[in-house]
Amino acid sequence: MTENEIIREIKKISLDDDHRFSFIAKYIVQNLSVVPESTIKEMAEYTYTSVATINRFTKYLNLDGYKELIHVVKYFNHNIKAEDDILKSADNNGFIYGIYHNIVRSLHDTFRLTLGHKEKISEIINKIKTARRINIFAVGGTYNVAKDFQEKILRLGFNAISVNDFHNGYFLAKNSTSEDLTIVVSYSGETQDLIKLARIAQENACPILLVCKKANNTISKIADYQITISSNESIERTISSTSRFALLFALDIIYYNLLSSDLEKYQTILDNTIINKF
């Protein structure tokens, strides 16, 4: 088979949920731009399989091994890039293309970061499940991301509150205890109001989870748990798109790990809380 025929075969497999290699094929199709940078061990981790399974997949495609699979993807990407260059020059959409590729790269790198913190995420899930109340603090556009997470876990039956103003945050932080959990969503980890709220929570012995970009910031020195995202946007950014997607994705990883910790229970809750709109 030619390189393009192999890619078409991978796409075909990805659409067949009953196929034994469906999940691997889906990951490759959805992450063509980053697959060439992944080792076979990383690919196994990303697809929740094993190195042996990846090797079986390459043999199924009649390839000589993982290196040839990477060659095929690189060849395909090269052709796609040529098409992209034509489109960009024709429509002057280079700016949009740049944002798109930055978002894809950011999500992939954030996923890689979280893979290395499975035990930490497990601790966070346990803390969420045992918390009396979950206070979620964020400001500006980042609050929309925090609010989305709050609504998701609220639907699962958790006592979660999200605020984006200092006064209401102050009341919640002041009344927090060691039985609660404070979640701070901050790209920089240096927002002054959020630093103040985190310090108040700390004074009350309330555990703190920080979701941010920089590993070394003021709130990270206060927090008990930290999930770091990947984003190439500067801290002094004027337009936040990549960072917003990465923060949302990081919180979704926590959410889906929470779901999978007791899937049958939470699936029943989700089914029982569907709002009939018609």
Automatic annotation (TrEMBL):
GO terms for biological process: carbohydrate derivative metabolic process. Gene3D superfamilies: Glucose-6-phosphate isomerase like protein, domain 1, Winged helix-like DNA-binding domain superfamily/Winged helix DNA-binding domain. Residues 124-264 form the SIS domain. Coiled coil: none annotated. InterPro entries: Homeodomain-like_sf (IPR009057), HTH_RpiR (IPR000281), RpiR-like (IPR047640), RpiR-like_SIS (IPR035472), SIS_dom (IPR001347), SIS_dom_sf (IPR046348), WH-like_DNA-bd_sf (IPR036388). It comes from Spiroplasma eriocheiris. The keyword Transcription applies. Keywords: DNA-binding, Transcription, Transcription regulation. This is GntR family transcriptional regulator. GO terms for molecular function: carbohydrate derivative binding; DNA binding; DNA-binding transcription factor activity. CDD domains: SIS_RpiR (cd05013). SUPFAM superfamilies: Homeodomain-like, SIS domain. Residues 4-80 form the HTH rpiR-type domain. Pfam families: HTH_6, SIS.
